[in-house]
Design brief:
Largest sheet: 8 strands, mixed
Structural class: alpha/beta
Shape: globular
Radius of gyration: 18 Å
Order of helices and strands: EHHEHHHHHEEHEEEHEHH
Strand content: 5-15%
Length: 302
C-alpha cells in the first residue's frame, strides 16, 4: 500500500479527546472525512482513545453524537471512590522530573519509575479503570486498517508501539497509552507495566515518517511545559526532537507535507483551566467541530 496520508492524534485529557472527535467531525461535515482518507492513524494518550474511535467504522457524525451523549456526573454527585493522589502534587512532581531530565530517555525512565512508585497506592484502581476504558471503546477489536497506539515501558522507559499484529487486546493497548503516572496505575500486559504514550511526546508525529501527507491534531498545541492548573504534558526540549515543532520540521525535511491543527481561541476557552475535567467534554467537542469546519478548506488545498 502506498503511504499517502497519516493522521496523528495527540494527547490532552478528557477535553483533548472531545476536541479531537469534534475536529474530525467538523472536517467531515465540510467534506473532508479523515476516518476514510487516513491510511494510518497514530494515537497517544487521549489520542489513543480517539484513534480507536476514528477507526471504529462509525461515521464522524456518529462519533460526534457519541461525545455529546457522554454526560458528566451532576455537580456534587459522588463518584465511585478509587485510590487517587492530589492532581496538583502529581503535576508538580512531573515538572520536577522534567526539569531534572538530561534527555528524553532519562525523562521516560524517571516517569516510568514514578508510575511504578505510585502503584503502591493506585493499583486497586487498575481493574475498574480497564473496565472504564473498555466501556468507552465503540468496538472491542482492533480495526483492519492500520492504527498505532503508543505507550512507554515503565521498567525501561522505552517507547512501545501496539497495533493489531502485537497480540495485545485493543482495550489493553489503549489503557496502557492513557496511564498517566501518578493519576492512574500503570497497566500490566504480559508481565510488563506501561505508562502513558504521551510521556515521550504529546503527539509522536515522527512515527508518520514516510507518509506523503501528515495531518496532526494536537490538543496541547505543541506546548512544551506544564503550567500550574493546566494539563500540558511534560517538558519537551527541542534538542531531544520529541517536541511537536521539531517533529514537524523533521517530517518536512524528509519530504512529507505536514498540516497541524491546534485549538483556536474558541476551543481553548471551551477547554478551560483543567483539561482533565469530564465536564468540559461537550462544549469542547462543539468548539472543535466549529474549528474543524473552518480548517477543512486549508487541508483540502494542501
Amino acid at each position: 500500500m502506498e503511504k499517502k496520508l497519516a493522521l496523528v492524534l495527540g494527547g490532552g485529557g478528557s477535553a483533548g479527546h472531545a476536541w479531537l472527535i469534534g475536529v474530525v467531525a467538523g472536517l467531515a461535515d465540510a467534506g473532508l472525512d479523515m476516518t476514510q482518507a487516513a491510511d494510518l492513524v497514530i494515537g497517544a494518550s487521549a489520542g489513543a482513545t480517539a484513534a480507536a474511535w476514528v477507526r471504529s467504522g462509525m461515521t464522524p457524525a456518529e462519533l460526534f453524537a457519541l461525545v455529546l451523549s457522554e454526560r458528566a456526573p451532576p455537580a456534587g454527585q459522588a463518584r465511585e471512590r478509587l485510590p487517587s493522589l492530589p492532581m496538583g502534587a502529581v503535576f508538580e512532581r512531573m515538572r520536577a522530573i522534567g526539569a531534572a531530565a538530561d534527555s528524553a530517555a532519562d525523562l521516560q525512565r524517571a516517569m516510568g519509575a514514578f508510575g511504578l512508585e505510585c502503584d503502591a497506592i493506585l493499583q486497586a484502581a487498575a481493574g475498574p479503570r480497564r473496565a472504564m476504558v473498555a466501556a468507552r471503546l465503540p468496538r472491542p477489536d482492533w480495526p483492519d486498517r492500520p492504527m498505532i497506539v503508543t505507550a512507554i515501558d515503565a521498567h525501561s522507559g522505552e517507547l512501545v508501539l501496539f497495533d493489531r499484529h502485537s497480540g495485545v487486546p485493543l482495550v489493553d493497548a489503549v489503557t496502557a497509552s492513557t496511564a498517566l503516572p501518578g493519576l492512574v496505575p500503570t497497566h500490566s500486559i504480559n508481565g510488563r507495566r506501561y505508562i502513558d504514550g504521551g510521556v515521550r511526546s504529546a503527539e509522536n508525529a515522527d512515527l508518520a515518517a514516510g507518509y506523503a501527507q501528515v495531518v496532526v491534531l494536537s490538543p496541547l498545541g505543541g506546548r512544551t511545559r506544564m503550567e500550574p492548573g493546566q494539563f500540558e504534558g511534560l517538558r519537551r526540549d527541542p534538542a531531544w526532537r520529541t517536541d511537536l515543532a521539531s517533529q514537524v520540521e523533521d517530517l518536512r525535511s524528509q519530504g512529507s507535507r505536514v498540516e497541524v491543527i491546534t485549538p483556536d481561541a474558541g476551543s481553548r476557552a471551551a477547554m478551560g483551566a483543567n483539561m482533565m475535567d469530564p465536564a468540559v467534554r461537550i462544549p469542547t467537542a462543539r468548539a472543535g467541530f466549529a474549528q474543524g469546519r473552518r480548517e477543512a478548506a486549508r487541508l483540502a488545498s494542501s
